[in-house]
Design a protein that fits this description.
Helix 1 packs across helix 3 and helix 4 packs parallel to helix 5. Helix 3 links the parallel strand 3 and strand 4. The protein has one domain. By secondary structure, the protein is α/β, with parallel strands linked by helices.
Length: 251
């Protein structure tokens, strides 16, 4: 694999990350993004809020596109192919913690717990190796311990490349439609036992899948929905409205 040739070479990683970030910036400038909120205060452009945001691994690049330099720290796996994502993330103004909530989990969770004062902690709860759209309990445990709300992000595109990977990784095609639907902040009780932890894991998994399916349907149909807003790329824009096409169960 060509990535192995970059292993340990920080200069090459920086060069590849910089080159990819330039290509991605040009790509996303062509995409028609719209956003819908259950609660607009979760947007980083409105007011800095502390929360844990969850989205499926297939859309790991989408938050970089939309809210760069927003004070977020992403949890990214230790796998070699994730080095590219880390390098790109840093050029988009986001920090990264290496590890996952399942692999190298103790170290990763400890690092994430030390980040409570950061604005946003971003986690792909089905990463780093799946199964696809199956949520692990690590993010729920972290939210419970830190007593930070969880915000779920559903992303969808009408025309995208789907990679032949376990997560069916998404890269939008130029001039496609991109849609985002976010949940309101949802609190998890402290001191969860195993039964309650599993209840919340299933609940969040269901809601996140529904939001993602809804965002994909919205992008494909190009329908207008209540309170939709055009997205100005970057952390500075004014969002004062909200709404969703169909209310997800459990919210």
């Amino acid at each position: 694999m060509w990535l192995k040739g970059l292993s340990g070479n920080k200069f090459l990683w920086k060069f590849v990350g910089f080159s990819c970030s330039l290509l991605l910036r040009n790509l996303i400038s062509t995409i028609d993004y719209k956003w819908a909120y259950y609660d607009p205060v979760v947007d980083a452009s409105v007011e800095r809020r502390k929360y844990i945001c969850l989205f499926w691994h297939e859309h790991i690049l989408s938050p970089l596109f939309l809210r760069r330099n927003c004070g977020a720290t992403m949890l990214i796996s230790r796998h070699l192919d994730a080095e590219l994502v880390v390098s790109i993330a840093r050029y988009f103004g986001m920090d990264a913690v290496r590890g996952s909530t399942t692999h190298g989990g103790v170290s990763a969770i400890r690092q994430m717990m030390s980040l409570k004062d950061r604005d946003v902690i971003a986690i792909t709860p089905d990463g780093p190796q799946g199964p696809r759209r199956t949520m692990s309990s690590g993010a729920i445990y972290l939210a419970s311990k830190l007593q930070l709300p969880i915000v779920l992000y559903g992303f969808g595109y009408d025309n995208a490349w789907r990679f032949n990977s376990w997560d069916k990784f998404v890269l939008p095609r130029p001039f496609s439609r991109g849609r985002v639907i976010t949940s309101p902040p949802i609190m998890v009780p402290p001191r969860l036992d195993k039964i309650t932890l599993e209840y919340y894991r299933k609940r969040f998994e269901t809601i996140l899948t529904q939001l993602t399916d809804e965002a994909e349907s919205w992008a494909t149909s190009n329908d207008q929905i209540l309170g939709e807003s055009f997205v100005n790329i970057g952390p500075k824009c004014s969002i004062t409205y909200y709404g969703v096409a169909k209310k997800a169960d459990g919210i």
